[in-house]
Amino acid sequence: MSEQEQSTVAEPLEVHFPQAVTPDERKGYQGYVVATEALPEVATYARDELGYDYLSSVTGVDYLPEGKTEVVYHAYRTAGGPALVLKVQVPREDPVVPSLVGIYPSADFQEREAWDLLGIRFSGHPNLKRILMWEGFHGHPLRKDYQEVYFEAENKPFKNRWPEGKVYRVEEKAPLKKNVQYPPDFTAEGWVPEGDAALYAGMGQVVAAEGGNGRALNTDQIVVNLGPQHPSTHGVFRLVVTLEGETIVDLEPVMGYLHRNHEKIGERNTFLMNMPYTDRLDYICAMGNNFGYSLAVEKLMGITPPERAEYIRVMMAELTRIVNHLWAIGFLLNDLGAYFTPALYAIEERELVLDVFEAVSGSRMMCNYFRFGGVARDLPEGVLDVVRELVHERLPRKVDELDTYLTHNEIIRARCVGVGVLPPEDAIAYGMAGPVLRASGVPYDVRRADPYSIYDRLDFDVAVRYNGDVYDRYIIRLDEIRQSLRILEQVLRDIPEGEVQTGKPQYQVRVPAGEAYGRVENPKGELGFYVVSNGKPNPWRYHVRAPSFINLTAMGEMCKGQKVADVVAILGSIDIVLGEVDR
Amino acid sequence: MTLVQILFLLFGLVTLLASLMVVTSPKLVHAAFWLILALAGVAALFILLEATFLAVVQVVVYIGAIAILIIFAVMLTRRVMHDTGPQVNRSWWVALLVSLVLFGGLVLMLAQVPALAGTPAPLMVDQETLLEDLGRALVDADRYVLPFELASVLLMASMIGAIFVARPPSGSEERSGER
Amino acid sequence: MDFNFQDPFTSIGELLRGLLLGWGLAPGLVSLILMLLGALVLAGFAMTLAGVFLTWLDRKLAARIQDRLGPNRVGPFGIFQPIADAIKLITKEDIIPEGAERAIFKLAPMLAVMSAVGIWAVVPFAPRLIGTDLNVGVLYIVAVGAIGTLSIMMGGMASNNKYAMLGAFRTVAQMVAYEIPMVIALLVPTMLAGTMGVGGIVEAQRGGWFIVLAPVATLLFFVSAMAEAGRAPFDLLEAESEIVAGYNVEYSGMKFGMFYVAEFLHGVTIAALTATLFLGGWLGPGAQQFPLLGLVYFAIKTAFVYLVISLIRFSMPRIRIDHLLAFNWKLLTPLALAAVIVTAIADKLAPALGWNRAVVHLTANILLAWATFEALRAYARGIRQRVEVQPAAVETGGAD
After folding, report:
1. Does residue A245 contact residue B103 with C-beta atoms inside 8 Å?
2. Number of compact structural domains in chain B
3. Which of B83, B170, B176 to mutate to test binding with chain A, by most A CBs within 10 Å of its CB?
4. CATH class of the domain defined by A262-582
5. Which of A260, B27, C52, C317 has a beta carbon 3.0–4.6 Å from A338's, enabling a disulfide?
6. CATH superfamily to which A2-123 belongs
7. Residue B68 belongs to some domain of the structure
8. Do residues C144 and C115 touch, judged by C-beta distance below 8 A?
9. pTM attached to this predicted model
10. Which of the four pLDDT bands, split at 50, 70 and 90, describes residue A161?
């Protein structure tokens, strides 16, 4: 690869930019601190000369005591290897950072999120507006001096959330009073709903009021909200679509309906208390989420789990992958209009895998099974036999069955081949992850590129397909199930006896100050947890790099020029879970 | 008055009323739906004349295809759909005049037909041969094959014209500006 | 009074006529009353049979296909589930959305049911059991189907909802397009039977069902009628995963129920028509003597075709709108025209050759089908070559 060759020639960042780039000297921290104004230049150099073409995560940390806000970038090479961590420090009163959307389009949604939750303004961002909170929300909730209205603010209207034992919803008492910003001349009584044009002015939608597409015979473009309540958005999610007949002219995802500020909750909780919360991110793959979070905190604590625990973890993660991909394939077919038959076929085996999860963790979906330095408890007797039967008998048969029924179906091919094509360079630029990235011909898999746990010892191939369309995204999931089965066979063969937990189980872990970015190849893509600790019982910053969320960045690009029916197919092929998108 | 006469009056009234509404209703979509009612009324009149074939064709072609396409075209342009402009333009009196002249001509012509002078005798047609006769008439060189073929050529020409007009201009932007 | 058990329908009719005449009513009025009564019985029969029994069978079948149990709570094997559903629908709030065209909105479901049931007027259920044997029966079927299109479009347009509007767009594009191959395919049985009357078409199949004489036309009619009725995989007008429910998204309560019934009846109607026009209708051993037996044959054939439609519905994803239209204009319509021409030639050829008529027609149809497959294969090969040659051409500098 030419990037590789260049990277060996190019000089490291601190040599090339002696003034602008300094290594981060703080204890427990890594990476480089970059001068604010030099950031685009440094990023361009890192991308073009050093080969860090994949910007994985963008987030901010509010260091209230130091009076500054830090923006943290994690960039990787798609060829593999460790991260390049760039940091920009700005005063927290008016944090302005140059936007990297022009260099790394994947920063688009993440910068919007950082603006929304942390109030960092990214100059030059084409569409900097709130993404998870609603337009008009007052304040930026992840800033450390943000106080929750009614409950944390100086003058509390209620003593606590349940005054005198009665539950009041906030909006019953004072509907949105202090929590919404109105324009100065706004009166609620005199307000009349405006037309489509005004309604979607903030949506980046071009509604040509005077109409037309420059042709002799003009038909009107119509704006359709696919969602928030729509059977194919897989949850409460909205796609604002401008249509010319049946053809998509413009599309913009609107999210945040399920937003619960997972990260704020995470910063209030102690480290271990977050573990069950991670289950709720991508609720199809609770085990995978546990895995990522444990890795991040274990990095901070400097511990590694015992061998048996590693094997159990990998086993659970791969079973999760199978579950997720079966689910994704089934519901992709549902989106294609197959009326539940393939979906019900696909999730038949899922129930059996969930039985395994129930046996080991006590819960089918919200597993909460991993612990820092191991897993919560050892496998009950007989579980291994069940898994062995699944892996050797039922699951391969199910994959073959789906393959037989679906892969060569004429309608499926007609609906999927060549639809929603994402070329490899775009896939990297938009920070796509997981099956979506690999279906575009980029063999990038965190399990291989930056191995964690015992993946470096296991023999498996990184599934890759080259056309980058919906069909390849479907078929790569079958490939990945087959690879997961290979991994599971090895795990079942080699799993040793022994401890499943380093040290004694404890509710309050001591986490030394520092930062860590733990990432795993979750079924939906790279799931990253960026955790900053200051030595206190709860994390100072807890950020989730959610693959479903970032994979949506390219949604608009993929859908333009396609038909309405393709939008749901493309969305189904990206495979999002709203619990993770909205967090 | 026989049942048939009552029905005739009923359908005739409905047809007339619907046609009136077509030209007077302020919204274009409503006009299109009134048009459908008028066409259905005509189909019913055909049935009263025992011309089932014509009635069915009326429904298939006029209601099933033409009226639906009119509504479709209106729906595609939503601004037109909500349009509630004035019903008449400056030359309304010309239209009125032309229709009156046409109507007068028709009445005069029909008055010449002797069968219409007295009470009409009930139509006695053998339904089976009627249909066959119609079919033969359309392909018989001595009867109506020429008008039939002319009409089909005309329709073909208009179809090609429609496709030509509706097709997006081939590539260039400035050509679309010209048109 | 002698009751003819071999032909109960005529007997009942005569009995009633005698009774009413005995009350001193005018003969014209009696005829009218009998006709209305017949229509009521027919519609009631359609509703009960299709609405209750077939819905249940359909759902049970779907459940079996999909690895579930299906309705199993109300009545034995859940057979009264459709009744419970109907009660639920009736008791639901009837909502008319803001900004809807109220009159059209209310009229649409009625027209929908009307068009579905209206076709049954010309379907011969058994010998001498037919609503009215119109001499333009086949065209009547098409005309009433067009009213169904109109009803869906009215519902979509009047709802003041963009999904409904999209559903209406799709309705027009799809139904107007698929009407053409359907009508042309209907010409084939008409030509074979020498009449447009549906009763006559059934009678003409004594020599051999038209599915044997015209398999291509049968398939064409079946496919295009499915598209016309909006059954999966052509259910774009109410594509749940795309435009939510299409034209009926704003309907609730019994108005929705009527659309639902209409859609269901439309499916049954297609099955009945296919059975009548191509599978010999009520024909079968002994049907002439015992019309009741004819009714049973007819019901079995209809149910069979309907279950085939259901099977297709539960095993196919949905076609996209542009593929759907391309399929119609590029394959079905030309093929239908070809089928008509082939039938016409074969019909003239058979007496000239002195062969069996069925053999000639079947051979002609097989030849047509073979030619179509070859043409399709050549077309697919062309596409594949274009796709495969292109990257190679870039690398080797156009070594085509």
Report:
1. no
2. 2
3. B176
4. mainly alpha
5. C317
6. NADH:ubiquinone oxidoreductase Nqo5 subunit (3.30.460.80)
7. yes
8. yes
9. 0.80
10. low
